[in-house]
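We close this part of the discussion by returning to an individual protein. In the encoding step, the backbone of a single protein was reduced to a row of integers, each denoting a local shape. The sequence in question and its structure tokens are set out directly beneath this paragraph.
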Amino acid sequence: MAIVNLEGDILLCNAEAERFLGLRDVPEEERNTKRLYANIKDRERLFTLLGREKHIRNYEVPMRRLNGDPMWASLNVRNILYAGQDAYLVAFSDITEHREALRHLELDEIRFEKLYALSQMTQRSEAEILDFALAAITEVTGSPIGFIFRVSEDESELSLFSWSGEVMAQCGLGAFPDRHRLETAGLWSEALHRREPVIINDYQAHPDRRGYPDGHMHIVRLLNIPVFDEQRIVLLAGVGNKEQNYTEEDIRQMMLIMSGTWRTIQRRRSRAELAEARARLEEKVMERTASLEAVNHQLVEKDREREEARAELLRYERIIETNPDLISLIDREYRYIIINESCARMFDRRRSEVVGQTVDQLFGEDCFDIRLRPAIDRAFAGETVREEAWIEFPTRGSGTCPSPTSPSGSRATRRPTSPSRRGT
């Protein structure tokens, strides 16, 4: 608790308030609440409310202790007379942990929304996908600025994809270089040098800071992360100038969004290649049909066309094999004819161990009869079927999966034994 005069000077406070606000080593003449508000407009709003209502309860406001540490406080304030002068009696409590927990929940919700939106963007251009990702990483980290660079295959050169709009507004440079050599780049590329996320919470005092040209925006804090495709770095993403220090939580949020971004780009590229191959295959089939109608009496010509079709089919199968999505081909006896490597990994088996097996042998009769067979039969009947359900992929030595409890079309969720066993 504290008593504060109309000018904000702290006239009296108890020991808990001194500890909470960091006042113990602050001279009395310097104890003023104006220094405690993270945003001075919050203080102005509080005084406006006091002038109208005389007693304010549970006023939640972001503040800073006098040593600069951020905090959240819940204030109860009312007018009193103290030593013959108007003053305020303030009772407050620390709600920092509560607000941080709420913020974490909010960030998780935002991130889930962004990742879901990214998963639906496979028909959009890569530029649109990266623009969306840039806006997402600045939002989840609470950063006013951000950037994304593409990295060359040999990781020696970075090409600028985009700066956030706030950077452009604050920077007075006439032109931005769009390419940088790694050996000449500054601290903003440190994550590429180290091949891991890098946090710099005091950019100006960092010993390796090289400075920047006149007109460049002022950098206070910086966080950048590398985005990997297996062992190769493909993107460098960064954010800066958050009001508080960057933490491991900011790294986690950024890594999840940028990893989802790269998976979306990979799926987009795979589907584009698959569509192109399918179009070429259809074109080849039409050409072959026309040719066969004209020269069907020539067996040699038929053999040549057959070999072309076989080669094209092999190429088509190779494209399926390199697709990161789980793809399998099942015949009318519910037997696996073809599966790609991604699908085989989910079964924890070699492809040769899966091909020839029936669906019910792998998933168990209950799971097959209740969940899988109805959808497969509808597909064989000519219907395009989309089913979603959380299932546990069978591991080596098992032959069953949990029977879903939700009706068709809804999501049935089971806790998997490991993250690699979940699938849709």
Notes: The radius of gyration is 31 Å. Residues 248-295 form the longest helix (48 residues).
